[in-house]
Design brief:
It comes from Microbacterium alkaliflavum. It is built from five helices and no strands. It is mainly α. It starts with a helix and ends with a helix.
Length: 84
């Protein structure tokens, strides 16, 4: 990979910037639909599963003293997605 960067130092950065800019444009063009989905029951169900799994994994690999912090972060993230 380092050899590729020596040959094409701007290639990776420009590719990522292009992807980010396309994502921003896609979001702006479809903002109402995206925002509507993020507050839907379907998004709530999916986010609950994802956030629960992530929290369980974090609790398994971190010391028990951080369990309350993990739960708090999980609840804050869940509050930003879905309708609950």
């Amino acid at each position: 990979m380092a050899a590729w960067r020596r040959i094409h130092p701007e290639g990776v950065r420009m590719g990522i910037e292009d992807i980010v800019n396309q994502g921003k444009k896609l979001y702006e063009d479809n903002k109402e639909q995206v925002d509507g989905f993020l507050k839907s029951e379907q998004a709530e169900q999916v986010s609950d599963q994802v956030f629960d799994s992530a929290a369980d994994l974090a609790k398994k690999i971190s010391p028990d003293q951080f369990d309350a912090t993990v739960d708090d972060l999980r609840d804050k993230a869940d509050g930003a997605v879905g309708n609950d």
